[in-house]
Sequence to fold (381 residues):
Amino acid sequence: MSLESLIPVSEEVLSSMILSPNQALGKNIEIHSKQKGFPALKNTSIAIIGISEIRNAFFPSSVYNIEEFRKSFYQLFPGNWSFKICDLGDLPNGATPEDTYFALKEICIHLRQLNIVVIVIGGSHDLIFPIYQSYQDINQLVNIVSVDNQFDFSQEEELISGRSYMSSIIMEQPNFLYNFTNLGYQSYYIAQEELDLMEKLHFDSLRLGVLLDDVAKSEPFFRDSNIAGFDMKALSWSALNHPSGSPNGIDSRTICALARYAGISDRIDFFGAFESPNTMVSHKLLSQIVWYFIEGFNNRFDEYPVLTSIGFTKYTVALSDIKMVFYQSEKSNRWWMEIINQSYMDNKNKTTALLPCTHQDYLDACNDKIPDMWWKATKRM
Fold:
């Protein structure tokens, strides 16, 4: 079993907690250590795994110092959390990147079967590929959200890299990718061919400016996703305190809000934060990003699968050409819209699905404007 390959958290990190208050996170989660061994996974809700695989990164740099992240994370105080969190230690690199991919995939399969949400820290963004592959054993359609300043569709000589892993996912057969959403892309980093491919496949995206103007627009995309990957290169250099970073990018406050939205999603099984630089600011920021994801998890509404017959208000909007049906939750005040499978339009057995949306999408429909995400979802179906 690949879980057996995980190595314990270092004694240096554990000793750094000696003087910490008893309320600190490091003293309230179960940690894989040489002294105590591997944590019991029974009743575990969230598991943290460190990883250092960067051999297929687009621009390989120094390996992220996961120990410094842990020192910062363990010093934080938990929220009003009543569930079990385990730090399972680190996955060592295999002989080849493909060996690491295989081990990570097996770990993800096992933990998902136990209904444990997995947080992956470190490594390069191509690690999304084996996480995606972990769904192949159950033939489940997968939605991926990527917080990144690029789409990662580049065609390169390598089979897969941190800049081309999405191409590998798209070409994988059998294919279980239903939707891919990019949040925070910057047009000057995107080739026109990549933009055309996003349009052709009816994938969703929010430009950096749109995201910064209203971060709440990202929430429906997380709500409908299984995997959330955060590429820390999407942050501005000022947020990371790193001179080689991008002059434009997501700020520290927005990235924490995005992490909270990811945590709130009832569907997200895997959350990954990749390609972070080694600065004290980045270690502290990443620890707070993970904290906000866990805080979001603590506030999940348990509304998936969506049962609109109970606790939902139905709104029917008559547009010029079609009627649209919206539902608002009485528990969370969140919105969904109904999508009809167009291939069954003339069939008595037509199928429908519910797509997460915003209140603004409902208001747009009331003004005879069909939401863009409705069009794309209809074409995907």
Q: What stands out?
A: The chain has a mean pLDDT of 93. The two ends are 37 Å apart (CA to CA). Residues 280-298 form the longest helix (19 residues). The longest strand covers residues 177-185.
